[in-house]
Design brief:
Blueprint (H helix, E strand, L loop, with lengths): L4 E13 L4 E13 L11 E3 L12 E3 L2 E6 L7 E5 L4 E13 L18 E3 L2
Antiparallel strand pairs: 1-2, 2-7, 3-6, 4-8, 5-7, 6-7
Length: 123
């Protein structure tokens, strides 16, 4: 198994819909793992064009309860791949996602809602 570290920053919460019971957020997702096949001699990291991600193994991470999501691609795909000499890969991307959130509005307008953002992997 490959151990994958993750970090996530929420750039913005764009909308909250009580009617659709969901919210839309833009996030920056970073994942880090080591692939010994990518080791190279040197002491500096290599930053690669995001389009090269198709040539690498990447974790199959998904957002639980996502209704729809998209990767930003203006003017190019908002992805970063950095490979370090020891084979460590940093993969970062910007995603906007709409996620289901069951809200209990029986005490509106004195209510409080708790919405989650969960990430999982199939493997």
């Amino acid at each position: 198994p490959v151990s994958v570290g993750m970090s996530l920053d929420i750039a913005s919460i764009d909308t909250i819909s009580e009617i659709n019971m969901d919210y839309t957020a833009t996030i920056f997702l970073r994942q880090r793992w080591t692939d010994e096949r990518l080791c190279f001699d040197g002491n500096k990291s290599l930053s690669l064009d995001g389009r090269l991600v198709e040539m690498l193994w990447v974790p199959d991470t998904f957002i639980v309860d996502s209704k729809k999501s998209f990767l930003h691609d203006i003017t190019v795909e908002n992805r970063l791949i950095r490979i370090y000499p020891n084979g460590t890969v940093l993969y970062a991307l910007r995603i906007t996602t709409t996620v289901a959130c069951s809200m209990d509005l029986t005490k509106y307008p004195m209510d409080k809602q708790m919405c989650t953002l969960q990430l999982e992997s199939c493997k």
